[in-house]
User: Fold Mini-circle uncharacterized 19.1 kDa protein from Micromonospora noduli.
Amino acid sequence: MSKLWTAPGGDPRTFGQPVGEKATYREYLGNYRLTIEMKCDGLDAEQLGRRSVPPSTLSLLGLVRHLAQMENQWFQRVLQGRTGAPGLYKHEDDRDWDFGGAVPDPAVVKDAFATWKAEIAKADEWLDALEEADLGREVPVDGRSHSMRDVLVHVIEEYARHAGHADLLRECIDGRTGL
Assistant:
C-alpha cells in the first residue's frame, strides 16, 4: 500500500475561488511551489540528490535548483529586464548545471533551497506590485514579444510539468504518492 502525502483535510494548498486573472495565477503558482516543497519534505541530501535513471541527471535537488534558475530567468531577467547579473546555476562546461551540479551534499541542498526561496520571495514581491491591467504588457523574449500573462502561464506550466517529475522521483525514493 502506498503512503499518502497528507491526511484528509490536511492539505496545506489552497483550492479556492480566486477573483481575477492575477489572483488565479498566484493561486496556481503558489500551489505548485508548495507541491514541490512537499515532495522534497523529510528527505536527506542523498535522497534529494538521487538521480532518476541513467543517463539522466534528473533529481529532486536538481529540480529545486532548476526551479530557482527558472524563477530568476522569468521574473528577474525577462519580466523585469534585470539581465546584468549572470543566470543562476549556469556553468560554461555544462548547459544543464542546475541538474548536473545537484550533488548529494548538505551544503548544496542548503544553497539550493535558500536560493529557490529567495527567488520566490523576489518574484512574489514583484507580483504583489503588478497591476492586473499590466498582464497584457509585452516583454521581449528571444527576439519576439510576449505578454506578461503568457510568461506567467509558462512559469505555471513549468512548475506543473516538474511537479509530475517530482511525483515519480519521490515515489521511487520511499513510495510516497499523492497530489
Residues 21-174 form a domain with the Four Helix Bundle (Hemerythrin (Met), subunit A) fold (CATH 1.20.120.450). The CA atoms of residues 63 and 165 lie 9 Å apart. The longest strand covers residues 138-141.
